Each structure stands twice: as structure tokens, then as C-alpha cells.
Amino acid sequence: MILEILISLLAVAGFGFGLWATRLVSAAQKAMQDTMSGVSAMLDSDLDDDAKEVAARRAGLGLIAGAFRIFVSFAVALGAAAVPIFGADLLGIAASADVFALMLRLDYIVIVSVVAIVVGEVIRRRRKSGTSDTASDNQYSSGDQSVHIFAFSSPSVLKGASWIEDRFIGKPDQTASDTPIFITSLARGGTTAFLNAMHNIPDVATHLYRDMPFLTSPTLWNRLAGGEKRAVERHERAHGDGLEIDLDTPEAFEEVIWKMYWPEKYRDGIDLWRSEDDRKPDAERFLGHHMDKLVQARQRQGRSEARRYCSKNNANIGRIPYLRAAFPEGKIVVVVRRPETHAASLFRQHHNFLKRHQEDAFVQRYMRDIGHFEFGQLHKPILFPGFTPDTYDPVSEDYWLNYWIKAFAHVLHHKDDCVFVLQDDLRINAQNTMQRICLEVGLDPKSTQFEGFFHSRPDETNTDVYSPGLLAEAEQIYKELQFVASSAPEHA
Fold first, then answer.
1. Residue numbers of the domain that contains 98
2. Mean pLDDT of successive 10-residue stretches along the chain, which has 492 residues
3. How many domains does the structure of the chain reveal?
């Protein structure tokens, strides 16, 4: 019996080695990705028939190649398992029939399976602890990526998910859309830290990573995906700025809905939204309904005091007059960072994402699907008045400083519609600054402590990299913004 056990274990090891050596898992993942890519293309309303045919043909060829690789992998693995069994039989060490009889016993199958799972988990954890995860932060498995691709394959999928949730969960009775809070600025302005601080207020409901990818059905999707049992390890986000995220971290996902209803706005750049010219009643109803659904989702997930919808959406800096017209009781909070440090951070992140998009196709797709066009190969600037994208090269510092100038000149034109908060004030005295902002937007901060959400060191950078004329223009606009922020109660 001992010889049969040893030979059977050698066969199991040979089978496992054959699967590993022929990369069966990667072949199966590639086949799944090809399948979802084909389905995604067929459901993508932005593609014409010729493009869909090409994508479907490419996916079909990929599936054929994948099926052949999987067949070869199993054949090699079975061959590796057969060698010790039939070799022992030929040498007269143990009969192959006895080995097969042992391997087909239920207790043998259970014991070997459990041991294999434990050994595999130990190896996986050791490998993970011995390597740094700087290459990718999306934490998406192949299956997760497939679900994401399906969810974002067409606007009809996300609209349909919202409709299904209404039927199974029921429509919310909240009125969060009456007094929403819109946090905005250019990317890298400090909106993420500000959102995290606002999320800590019990009355506030924000989007979470948990809502991905079926953002329009947050309650139903959370239940289907496992609820509180679903988790990912906390890890640094793609920006490399030290901010860590998990499923319960707030994030900017509202742009998905704007893309669904205003696709014509997204070309080489992103057009501005006007107060009346761009009104779409159906879109506004859906967006308002979505705000109510999100508050309901947070309440059902443990935030019983949540009443106010709060979004961080950098693209909303190009929609200030529209937001004021569509949501007259809402509050628009603009976070303002010093132009020289803000532009320097934009410049660094653009280069960071040029590299990341080149290295990881899914990171690029993920950012495109959620409407984050700020950086990298996806960069689509908001077309502020007077901004001409080809005046400077996006890989230069002056491009981003010029972008800042045009963005905040536009904001100043609509200063009466906004509440302003300076990042410098948040660094110097976060508690008093946040309490003032809460008062202006009609929130009770209760006993919330805000100090831990913001850097306390001065916001400084080298200014020699900028053209003197641009820097002087930016500094003048910043002084005007400082004055507006200091007299903010007049505009609350």
C-alpha cells in the first residue's frame, strides 16, 4: 500500500507540474478575455458593424487558439501523471490497476485535494509577501475583469441594472437629489482627501469602490457580490501618492452617468456644459434617481444617518452653470491648490499614467470606462474658454500650468455659484476649515475629526520649470481665488 501511495502522489505531482509548465491557467484566462472582448464589442454602441465584425473575428480566432492550448495542457499533464504509474507497472514495483483503484477512492480524493489546496495557498501567500505590487493596483482577477467588461459594454447594461434594482429592491423614497454636494477641481487638486474627510461625516453618502462595476444598482450588486463578505486587501492606488484604498473607500464614479447621457461631449476634448443649452430631462431624472439610490444603499450598508449625496467629480469643474441650473439647492465645492504645485502634480501623473497605460491594458480600459480622462494615453482636456490643447505639449510643465490658468479663470467667472476651499487652509488648520465648509454647505460635522485627512507640510515645488509669463498669470488668478475664498460667507 505504501508503494501505491507514493506512486499515486508522484502521478498527482506530475499532473500538477504539467498544468503549471504549460500555463493552463493563463490559457483559460486568455480564452475568457477573448470571449468577453467579443461580447463587449458586439454590445458596444460606439462601434460600427465593420469594427464589430473585426472584433468578433479576432475573438473567435483567439478562442480557437485558446481551446487548442487548453487541450495540449491537459494532454501533457495526463502524460506526466501516467509516467510514474505505468513506469512502476513495467518495472514490477506496483500494478497500475492497484494505483488507479487507490486514486479513485473517495477518502484519497478528499485528503489529497485538501492538502493540495493548503499547499497552493501557502505558496501563493509566500510569493505575494515576497514581491511588491507596484505594477498594478486594480486587484482585478480575470473573472473580475470579465464582469467589468460586460458591465461597461454598453450604456444599456448599466441602465438595465438600475431598472432591475428598482424592481427587486424598490425605488428609494429619499430626496438626496434635492441638496447634493458636488466636490470638484482639476485632478490632483486635493479633491480625494477632501472627499475622504467628507465621507467621515455620518450624514454623507458617497460612491465606494464596492459599487463597481454595476454602479447604477449599488444595493442589488452589493448583495449579489457577497455583501460585507466581499473584500480586497488595502493597497496603494494607481497614482503612487501614498493613498491606500479598499472596497469601502470613497471614489469618483459619477462621471459614468454623464458619459451615458452626453456621449457627444467626449471627443478629442471634453466640451463644457451650459446652463440651459445642454439640459436633458431624462438624464437629470436618472441622475437624481441615482443619487437617491446611492443614499439608500449606504443606509442599508450601515450608514443609517446618511442623507446627503456627495460626489467627487473633477469633470464637474466644466459644468458649474449647468449644475446650478439642474440642482439649484445643491452645493458646488471647488478645492483650490497653488498653481505651481498643482501643475507639477498634473505633469507627474500624466507621465505616470502614460507608462501605466502602456504596461497594463486593463488599467487603461478601467479608467476610460469610469470617465477618468485626465492623464496618459486617455487624456482628454476639458475645453475651457481660451484653452487650445496644441499650444503646449502635454509632456511639458507649461501645458499643465496653462491648463490650470484657463480652468480657474473659468471658475472665477462662476465664483458666485461655488464654495471655495484652499488646500493651503486645509494644511494649516484642517479642523476649522472643514467646519467652516460644513456650515456653508449645510452639514453638521458633529464630532468628526478632520486633521488626519490632509498633509500638514507646506505645498512647495520648483517654479523654474515654468515660463515666467505663465507663472505670473497663474499667480494673479490664485490671488483672486484667495480673496474669494476669504470672503466665502458672502457667496454661501
1. 2-129
2. 87 87 78 66 61 76 84 90 90 89 86 77 59 46 77 87 91 79 96 94 93 92 76 54 66 94 94 88 94 93 90 96 94 97 96 90 89 94 95 96 98 96 95 95 92 90 95 97 80 40
3. 2
